[in-house]
Backbone:
């Protein structure tokens, strides 16, 4: 088979799997698991084959046109360069891991068939986004992901949190998608094509007339999809979905799509210094803010969610300084270790019966209960904190190097100010990242108090996946020397200055947190807290749904628990309250958007009920009155009828005579 | 002779018949009023025939036909009135109000309880 | 011919035949009015005889003698007799009946008055000056009528005979007493009102009895 055929099969196989899964889900439950896992796995293998054949060389371009579509043609086009090939591998691998993990995690779930089909569809849409060479086709995948995320985040729709979260995720990403769509049309109008190659050619020829406007419009969609400030608020709430879905959304699909999109069209963004600066500021604010917020969260998955936002900020930062190689490098390594973190967190939540860090810190021996999760999570957290030689270190160094280059004026694509923004924010975030990673690890695995409950061994399908993902988290950084051949050719290896600086601040953050934990952990014994509410022997998904549902009643808040033993309280001081609430962005949006919309809806409801309906009811009442009046005439007396008939004909006759006389006289 | 005399006489007779049809209760009196109206028409036809000196005498021929048809109409009409009277015990036109919508709905029986049964009997008789 | 004649004949100098026509017309109208207003039903039929007889005289004055005799023979002779029979068969009250007119009479009066006014206006307006010349050969003698009727109007005449036959049969069918047994006839004949007003259960019993007999 040609490489093109293989590449077409990559997104097609999960799609067919999803369709078959939906069709056979009820009639043949035995086929659901193979139909979920095998197409995704095959797609991952094919993505590897495509990557090997492409081998970082010239981009593979193929296109076919289904039907003429007016002035701007829409092609079913493939555009596979090094970025696409490697990202597709990441998507395939993570999606396969998630599918395998889900077979254990949701083993008794009655909605598993639809769940698995949606995950397959989600994967297929992301692969379409990755491989597509046409922006309209890319948009199709982009929107399918939005729909799938809505359904998957709302998987536990029995809980009000999940319902609210799925709606929020859908609406917030759609809020970004509207300007994104307008931007796409403006871009196509300027460039005359939806093909990526064509657009890049137009950018190179300076044929795009409004690069700043288009770039800013597109950035709105990217911010929504990739959860960048100010449209990041859906991502922490999306933790109300099942853990494998979180892993999928955070590591490989959805949020990666925005970064990947910018990386694909980076020359377009680079054509506008303003857009690059906006992107840099966006990235900086996102990074620092999410780091602080992550430090204050109590829900283990919300810590990871804010960490995802921060790491995506790193990638946006790398794009803002014009180095998409570093961005995609970080995307790949982050995808590996963040998927691992989430999947391990799912195991831990099941084992501990709660998703609250405060409760886990009062529980000893969790690491012995789930040794696989303990070890792999340690690896992933080290990677997240960018400790050498783990994967995160190398990719984050690449970002730092790129930012430093730009800040010192060595880059011709990005403004110097953007470089400084990104560099300073990235170093600050490195401190925060290390701090919340260490806090997460200490609170989860070094708790003191009652013994953790024993649920026996976790399913093999879940633990194996953890080790599979631990390998790239550990070793992916070693490919840093070989990757530039696939990307733009920028060196991705760490330089001494940034390596020392980055690792140094990370160590500082980690040590300070450790000190704070030593100081505050003494308080934990005195303050008993933490009702483990979840059903101990249920399947993991049920434990998680119960943990989500009981978090607010048990600890008072969805984000934070009133736990004075939390080292974050000591570190953040008065800032803790605000950080836990995500710096009140949600409250701000409530004031700015939600309340006006509600008020407008009330007004419309009033107008409809009181004004429009009055006319409708009035016409009905009038007709009824008229009918009553007419009914009185129906007496059944033939003489009355005949009188009316003859009177009418006399009137008509007189009218005819008078009219003819008048006409004759005139 | 002025044509206006017979014409006006016909008009007035016609109107008197009209009044009788609309105002009388007894069905036989209504039939009498109909006869008056028919005769008014006949007078018109004869007068115009004489005035026009029609070689075919269409007016007079038509008058003869109308008289014959009127006789037939009276025969049939009286038969119907008799039948109604037999079924209802009354030949008052304004009391035959089965088509009126009553408070109990269109299917409720009229003032005479046996109406539906009588109708069935009629249907049987004609069948 | 008529317009030239009309100029010489004014309304204020009526000819003898016109005076006769007017007098008979007034009598006819009066009889007609009494017919539709009287409270004695049998009197109405008798006044109808006067009105129809007056019309027969008018036909004679218009030289339509055959139609005049036919009018007397058929209307006065048979139709009115038929009507009187009808009145008797429906047990019309002899003497004044207070409810001879329905509640519709004022509406009827208005409609009739308006119709009369408008029609009179139209007719007078149209035929003010038209003159009928009655001096020529008689228009409606029996000989003439017979000739045209059987020369030009034979087909309608024959069709009319079929119609009369149909009416005859129809009248018989309608007034027949539903094929009742001879033994039952007197009972229902003596109490037609009770028969109309009887309840459904007895009607049903009646019918079942008849079915049993047949």
Residues:
């Amino acid at each position: 088979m040609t490489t093109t055929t293989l590449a077409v099969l990559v997104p097609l196989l999960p799609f067919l799997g999803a369709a078959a899964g939906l069709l056979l889900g009820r009639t043949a439950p035995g086929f659901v698991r193979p139909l979920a896992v095998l197409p995704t796995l095959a797609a991952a293998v094919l993505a590897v084959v495509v990557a090997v054949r492409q081998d970082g060389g010239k981009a593979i371009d193929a296109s076919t046109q289904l039907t003429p579509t007016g002035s701007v043609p829409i092609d079913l086009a493939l555009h596979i360069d090094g970025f696409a090939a490697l990202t597709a591998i990441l998507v395939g691998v993570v999606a396969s891991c998630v599918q395998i993990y889900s077979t254990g995690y949701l083993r008794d779930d009655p909605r598993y068939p639809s769940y698995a089909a949606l995950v397959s569809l989600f994967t297929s849409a992301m692969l379409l986004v990755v491989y597509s060479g046409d922006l309209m086709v890319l948009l199709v995948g982009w929107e399918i992901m939005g729909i799938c995320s809505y359904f998957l985040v709302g998987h536990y729709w029995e809980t009000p949190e999940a319902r609210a979260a799925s709606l929020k995720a859908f609406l917030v990403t759609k809020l970004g998608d509207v300007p994104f769509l307008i931007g796409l049309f403006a871009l196509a109008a300027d460039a005359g094509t939806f093909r990526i190659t064509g657009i890049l050619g137009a950018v190179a020829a300076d044929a795009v007339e409004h690069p700043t406007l288009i770039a800013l419009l597109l950035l709105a969609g990217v911010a929504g999809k990739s959860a960048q400030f100010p449209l990041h608020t859906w991502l922490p709430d999306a933790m109300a979905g099942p853990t494998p879905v979180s892993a999928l959304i955070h590591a490989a699909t959805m949020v990666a799509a925005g970064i990947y999109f910018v990386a694909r069209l980076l020359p377009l963004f680079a054509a506008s210094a303003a857009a690059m600066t906006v992107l840099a500021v966006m990235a900086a604010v996102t990074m620092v803010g999410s780091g602080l917020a992550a430090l204050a969260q109590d829900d283990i998955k919300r810590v990871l969610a804010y960490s995802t936002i921060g790491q995506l900020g790193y990638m946006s930062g790398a794009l803002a300084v014009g180095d998409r190689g570093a961005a995609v490098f970080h995307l790949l390594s982050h995808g590996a270790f963040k998927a691992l973190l989430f999947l391990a967190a799912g195991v831990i939540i099941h084992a501990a019966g709660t998703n609250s860090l405060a409760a886990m810190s009062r529980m000893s021996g969790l690491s012995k209960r789930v040794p696989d999760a303990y070890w792999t999570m340690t690896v992933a957290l080290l990677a997240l904190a960018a400790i050498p030689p783990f994967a995160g270190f190398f990719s984050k160094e690449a970002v730092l190097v790129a930012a430093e280059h730009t800040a010192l004026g060595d880059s011709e694509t990005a403004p110097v100010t953007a470089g400084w923004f990104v560099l300073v924010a990235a170093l600050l975030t490195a401190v925060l990242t290390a701090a919340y990673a260490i806090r997460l690890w200490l609170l989860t695995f070094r708790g003191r108090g009652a013994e953790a409950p024993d649920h026996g061994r976790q399913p093999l399908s879940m633990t194996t996946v953890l080790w599979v993902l631990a390998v790239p988290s550990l070793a992916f950084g070693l490919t840093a020397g070989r990757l530039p051949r696939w990307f733009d050719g920028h060196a991705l290896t760490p330089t001494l200055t940034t390596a020392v600086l980055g690792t140094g601040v990370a160590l500082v953050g980690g040590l300070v947190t450790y000190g704070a934990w030593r100081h505050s952990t003494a308080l934990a014994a005195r303050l008993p807290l933490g009702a483990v509410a979840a059903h101990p022997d249920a399947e993991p998904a049920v434990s998680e749904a119960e943990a989500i549902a009981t978090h607010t009643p048990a600890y008072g808040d969805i984000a934070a628990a009133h736990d004075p033993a939390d080292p974050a309280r000591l570190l953040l001081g008065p800032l803790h309250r605000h950080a836990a609430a995500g710096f009140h962005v949600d409250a701000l949006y409530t004031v700015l958007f939600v309340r006006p919309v509600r008020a407008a809806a009330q007004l419309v409801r009033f107008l409809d009920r009181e004004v429009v309906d009055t006319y409708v009811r009035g016409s009905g009442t009038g007709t009824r009155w008229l009918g009553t009046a007419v009914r009185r005439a129906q007496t059944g007396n033939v003489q009355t009828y005949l009188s009316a008939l003859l009177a009418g004909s006399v009137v008509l006759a007189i009218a005819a005579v008078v009219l003819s006389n008048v006409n004759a006289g005139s | 002779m002025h044509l206006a005399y017979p014409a006006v006489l016909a008009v007035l007779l016609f109107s008197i018949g009209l009044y009788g049809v609309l105002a009388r209760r007894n069905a036989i009196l209504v039939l009498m009023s109909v006869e008056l109206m028919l005769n008014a028409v006949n007078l018109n036809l004869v007068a115009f025939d004489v005035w026009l000196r029609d070689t075919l005498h269409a007016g007079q021929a038509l008058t003869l036909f109308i008289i014959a048809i009127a006789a037939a109409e009276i025969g049939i009409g009286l038969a119907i009135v008799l039948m109604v009277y037999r079924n209802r015990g009354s030949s008052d036109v304004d009391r035959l109000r089965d088509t009126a919508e009553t408070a109990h709905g269109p299917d409720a029986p009229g003032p005479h309880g046996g109406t539906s049964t009588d109708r069935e009997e009629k249907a049987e008789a004609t069948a | 011919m008529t317009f030239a004649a009309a100029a010489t004949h004014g309304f204020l100098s009526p000819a003898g035949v016109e005076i006769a026509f007017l007098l008979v017309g007034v009598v006819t109208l009066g009889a007609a009015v009494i017919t539709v207003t009287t409270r004695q039903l049998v009197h109405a039929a008798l006044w109808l005889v006067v009105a129809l007889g007056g019309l027969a005289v008018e036909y004679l004055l218009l030289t339509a003698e055959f139609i005049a005799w036919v009018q007397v023979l058929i209307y006065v002779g048979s139709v009115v007799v038929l009507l009187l029979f009808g009145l008797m068969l429906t047990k019309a009250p002899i003497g004044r009946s207070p409810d001879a007119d329905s509640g519709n009479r004022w509406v009827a009066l208005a409609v009739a008055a308006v119709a009369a006014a408008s029609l009179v206006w139209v007719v007078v307006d149209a035929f003010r000056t038209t003159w009928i010349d009655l001096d020529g050969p008689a228009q409606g003698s029996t000989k003439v009528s017979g000739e045209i009727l059987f020369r030009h109007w034979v087909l309608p005449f024959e069709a009319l005979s079929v119609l009369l036959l149909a009416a005859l049969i129809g009248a018989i069918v309608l007034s027949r007493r539903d094929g009742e047994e001879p033994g039952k006839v007197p009972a229902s004949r003596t109490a037609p009102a009770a028969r109309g007003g009887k309840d459904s259960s007895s009607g049903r019993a009646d019918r079942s009895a008849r079915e049993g007999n047949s």
Summary: Chain B touches chain C through 85 residues (CB under 8 Å). Chain B has one domain: 4-96. Helices of chain B lie at 4-23, 27-52, 58-88, 115-126. Confidence is low (pLDDT under 50) at residues 105-127 of chain B.
